[in-house]
Amino acid sequence: MAAALEVSLHPARSVYVELWNGKYALGWEHYGTPVFKFGWAPAGLATRRQLRAVHMCPGGQEPYALLAWRKGKRWAWHYRLDLAKPSRRATPAVLNALDKAMRARRTCGQCHREQTYCIPTSDGRCIDCIDAADCAHAA
C-alpha cells in the first residue's frame, strides 16, 4: 500500500473544478488531481466497487479523481464511467474448475464424504471425524 495520502478537507480550499466534460463541480485540486468530499462527486465518476456492482472495470484508464472522507484519512480513486469497460465473464470451463475446487475443499480427507462447509485446511478432517477422534482419545 502506498504511503498515507494527506488530503486537506478545509472548506476554504473548495472551488469549482472543471471536469472532462466541460462542466464544473465543487471540490479542489491536489497536485492536479480533482478531489471531492463524500457526496460531492459529480455524476459520471465511480469507484472500483461501484464499477464492479454494474459489471464494469476501469479498463486500463488512469484514476481521474479522488473521493475523500473522514477528514482526508479515508479516500478512494474515482474512474470515468464513459471510459469503463465491461467485466470479463467466466467461461463454462472456468466455472466447472471452480466447482471442482470447491468440492475438493468440502471433502473430508479421512472419511471422504462431501460436507456442506469447507473443511479446515489445518486438519483436513470434517467435524464428525475430529469429534470421533477426540472421543476415542478420551475413552
What does this structure look like?
It contains three helices and eight strands; from the N terminus they run E-E-E-E-H-E-E-E-E-H-H. The model has no long low-confidence stretch (mean pLDDT 85). It is of the alpha+beta class and 139 residues long. The protein is elongated, with a radius of gyration of 25 Å.
Write down how many β-strands occur, each being a DSSP E stretch of 2 or more residues: 8
Helical content, roughly?
Answer: 10-25%
- What characterizes the major β-sheet? 6 strands, mixed
Secondary structure class reads: alpha+beta
Structural key phrases:
139 residues, alpha+beta, six-stranded mixed sheet, two-stranded antiparallel ribbon, 8 strands, 24% helix, elongated
Task: Summarize this entry quickly.
The protein is of the alpha+beta class and 139 residues long.
Layout of secondary structure:
Blueprint: E1 15-18, E2 24-30, E3 33-37, E4 45-46, H1 48-53, E5 56-57, E6 65-69, E7 74-80, E8 85-86, H2 92-106, H3 127-138
